[in-house]
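Hey, I was hoping to borrow your eyes for a little while. I've been staring at a protein lately and its backbone has me curious. You're getting the sequence in one-letter code plus the fold written as tokens. Would you mind checking whether the tokens look sensible for this chain? Here's the protein in full, and shout if anything looks odd to you:
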Amino acid sequence: MDTIIIGPHAPRLAVSVAGQGPLVLMVHGMGGDRTTWHAQIEALQPHFTAASVDLRGYGGSGDIEGPLDFHRDFGADLLTVLDHFNAPRAHLVGLSMGSRVVRSLALRHPERVASLVLANGSPGFDAMTAEDVERFIADRSAGFAGGRVPASFGMDQARAMCAPDAAPEALRIAADAMQRIRLANYLAVLDASTRQDRGDLLERIACPTLVISSDQDRVYPEYVTQQLVDRIPGAVHARIEHAGHLSNLEQPEAFNRAVLDFLL
């Protein structure tokens, strides 16, 4: 597996990649980064060019500069990666927030998206009132006294998201990624994604779509992911057993099998 930096124009983007063939690009959640997809890159690389990207503000990629436009800016990051690999179209895989990023691209640039895998995701924040939005952002911005990420933040978040019996290695990978967040970037993403991810017409998604849910996801329970299945034409559904919100880390073999069965 190689790490490449796409630049020199801002923001630089860090990408992990292995294999040859059609491009499969994987996109992390709000507290993740590209390292959370390494088990998927290994599984997919015999058949595909398998890559995971750090969105701007995460991991080895450049910081967010100025106000963040959730759809435009993160969509631009994905298009930059596709262009780097000379891929007219790509299979996109997203977890949690990453699933919202990739379905946004499928709606705004359908000609660039061959298929979607939406794992542990949601339709957006349409159901929230203005008061709900403010409360949601405030609740998730609390706990950063002095503008710092607490030393226990990563593991606390990992344990809250994963199933109670999650493997220690899954917890470690998730916790390490969450502990690496750059706070100003994280808070900017939290604010922009909550306020702006509203009104997407999922009924217009035209590419093949796999929706993945988990039996123990407390962040987006299955009744939330079922809305994606119901609203996206022709969407198929795979359920990962014994997993919480981070299904690709908690049950990588089952996750990889579902994705490969869908793509091959």
About this structure: The mean pLDDT is 96. The first strand starts at residue 2 and ends at 6. The two ends are 22 Å apart (CA to CA).
